[in-house]
């Protein structure tokens, strides 16, 4: 059970299906800030060979953990799904009040927490407490393609077959939601006119997200969570609504939506699709299945970096100042070897240094999207 604005939301799983997180009988301990920064998150496309191997080894080990371990890859994916496929109820006695970590000001801090514990678990699995979750640097031209590290299909733990084959080798389109019918542009390089055009458009999308629409904390981070918020795009901040969502849909393989009849027919109906592979092979394309693709976590590492840049360089600072937001807390599992519950509040995660990580300063020296002029 998690606390949002001092109310508790509970995971309900009437059909006995996953993915309600496993219940541990112990009470959570409070999160304690880390004493120093030991982890520097780097861009995936610039990782050394050695770091690439570490990343693969860690994810392979996480995938090999038994599902009962709340820090196994299967359980991690299930946590994300539980928080966006109506398993959590704001008030279990009231109908139609599903709880969701998307579409509101919960988005940025919740995902920061989630990938923080994921990153720590990966480090623990390879016995390296400097291991930091690499980010998919889609806001710079050289990173505007699915990173090759995730593409090799031969025994690669970072590979996921459920991606859109027409987009995996193409230049990413950060405005894909407004552009779904556009032809994919090959990731060729600056001599191609269409390539140049889309790169510029992408940079301007990031500029708009971070600067033009990033004025004001709620405009960037999202609006206050309300039980009837549904999946409304108007309550999302620009951080969630723009490049983040576009990348999800762009990577996910096209196909029937999880709620469609075609999908139910193929999977045995909601919520059975949680068993044995979810969602008509879309993975990244739908929130409920996104956590099944290892790329999700490096995508969110960059979304988190966008928040970090907004806070530290673009004047956003601590963000929202309302106590309701600052005191909202969630419980996560920490420690792969003997998982224990930790309660962590939004106010604990406003400065990444308290979480023991930061972002590679070199790749932030030149942010090409700052030069976009609209
Ligand atoms: Cu919880 Cu990118 O979504």
From TrEMBL:
Name the record gives this protein: Tyrosinase copper-binding domain-containing protein
Provide the gene name from the record.
Answer: LOC103641120
Q: Name one GO molecular function term.
A: metal ion binding
Q: Which cofactor does it need?
A: Cu(2+)
Q: Specify the taxonomic lineage.
A: Eukaryota, Viridiplantae, Streptophyta, Embryophyta, Tracheophyta
- Residue window of the full protein shown: 89 to 462 of 613
What keywords is this UniProt entry annotated with? Copper, Disulfide bond, Metal-binding, Oxidoreductase, Thioether bond
Give the originating organism: Zea mays
- Which protein family is named in the record? Belongs to the tyrosinase family.
* Domain Tyrosinase copper-binding positions: 293-304
Q: Is Nucleotide-binding included in the keywords of this UniProt record?
A: no
